[in-house]
Each structure stands twice: as structure tokens, then as C-alpha cells.
Amino acid sequence: MPGSKSSFTAVTIEGMRMMLFTHPLNFKGRWLRDRLQPWLTDNQRIYNVGQVSIGDESSAYISVLYKDDKLYCLHEINSNEVYSLVFARLVGELRIIKSVLQSWNKWDSHLSSICTPADPATSLSERGCGPAVTTVGLVGFLSHSATKNEWEDAYRCVNASTANAERVTNGLNFAGVGGGTLWPVGRQGQNQRYRFANYVFTLVASLTIHETPQAVAPLLGASLDSSGDKKLLGLSYDENRQWQPIYGSTPVTPTGLWKVNKKYHVVLTMENKI
């Protein structure tokens, strides 16, 4: 942003190597900088720690220091062209950062320790474990907690909104017109945390269809438009119990059959916008 300076600091907190950086927002327009916010990233996930400036004060320049398990910031304030410097210790912000890193480590350890059957067709006593769930490149995971209107990201970065959702074991049950969830990984106003999703991503969902629809119904999709209506790619299911792939506006022949109350793992992948 013209006329402003962000701060980038490599740190080791909770035994994890991270990058702390700061960035001002621009709610006032006219290239004014306000609402200074520190961010945390491990080069996979990005977490917004909060706001360190007060209100909408103009704060264009900031530096961050982490030393002896203490976090400090030095930032400028411009009030009617009168400039001041503020030096503050970020006690609450460091507490949040440690809590988030603990969550990241907890879920990485949990997911990588899950035993996936090497051969699901064999008996429980003979299955053995297949390859561990990889957490390299994993930026979000919707599973453990949800409310009527929100499905929480276990990594605490970008939550999903829900409609007509009921909490069930290991997930949500969607019913009725408009039932579903929207995960806005590429739509977050001025701060686009996961811009890579415009070019490359893999989306994985475990799901079960409980009844046959009366017409083609959407199941899982990815969209680059703001409304979420124009699917870039996805998968629907129809009244003939066939899968209906979606590749933009290109007509696609139905493929394969699905069964009621059977669990499926659906994977959508895009590389280089393909």
C-alpha cells in the first residue's frame, strides 16, 4: 500500500518456526491506513491476530519485535498531520498466538496419527493402516465444532457459514431448500489469505446422501465468483442416482452410480486453473 510500511519477523514460538507480519487496512479510502493488524503464518495457514492500533487512527508504519518470549510493536499515529510514536507490549496478542499454534500442532498430530485402512474390504483385525493423512499444504479442516450458522475451521483461520444444518456425529446434516455450507477461502474483503485458491487447490469431503432427489441437486463445488453460484468445477447427483460432474459451463455426460446411505469421499482438484 503506497505510503505505508509493514513488518515481517521470523520467530520461533511454541517450538514452531513462524512468520509474524503486520498490515494496515484502508477503511477510510484516499490511501489512508488504519486498523493495524498483526498476522501469523507457517507458510501454509494464515491467522489474523487482531488489531493493535486504536479505533480508526491513521497508522501507516509499524515494526514488531519478539524477544525473551515477549512481543512488542512500535507504530506511528497521524492525527491531523501531528505524528506520534507508540511503543507497546502485546501481551494478549502473544497469548492468542500461542493458543493458535497449539491448535495447529494438535490437529497436525491428530490427523497424521489417524489409521486409514490399507484395505477397507478386509476384516477389522486384518486391515492394518495405510499411508498417514498428510498435513503438508493443509490450510483448513472443517470437522470438530459447529453452530446453527457457522462451521468452525479446526485451524481457526477461515470459518464456513451454514444453512439448514443440524449437528451430527463427525459432521453436519443438511436438509431443505438452500441447505449447505459456504467456505469463503477466497472472499475475505481486503485481506485475501488464500489467493492460491484462484489457481490451485484440492478440496476433500466425506459425505453421505440420505435420499434420492427429484431433480439434479448440487453436492460439492468450487466457485471463483462472489455469489458462489457459477461453479468452476464440482459434482452434483440426480434422480437417476447418477453423478453429474461440473466443469464450468461445459456440458458433461453423467457418470457412475451412487447409493443411498453409503459414505463417499469426494475430491475436487484444480491445478493452473484446470
UniProtKB/TrEMBL annotation:
- Going by the entry's taxonomy, the superkingdom of the source organism is recorded as Eukaryota
One MF term in the entry's GO annotations:
exo-alpha-sialidase activity
Which part of the chain is the Trans-sialidase C-terminal domain?
Answer: 135-272
Q: Where is the Sialidase domain?
A: 5-76
InterPro entries referenced in this protein's UniProt entry, alphabetically: ConA-like_dom_sf, Sialidase, Sialidase_sf, Sialidase_trypan, TS_C
SUPFAM superfamilies from the UniProt entry: Concanavalin A-like lectins/glucanases, Sialidases
Which Pfam families did the record assign?
Answer: BNR_3, TS_C
This protein's name: Trans-sialidase, putative
Organism whose genome encodes this protein:
Trypanosoma cruzi marinkellei
Per the UniProt record, the lineage of the source organism begins with: Eukaryota, Discoba, Euglenozoa, Kinetoplastea, Metakinetoplastina
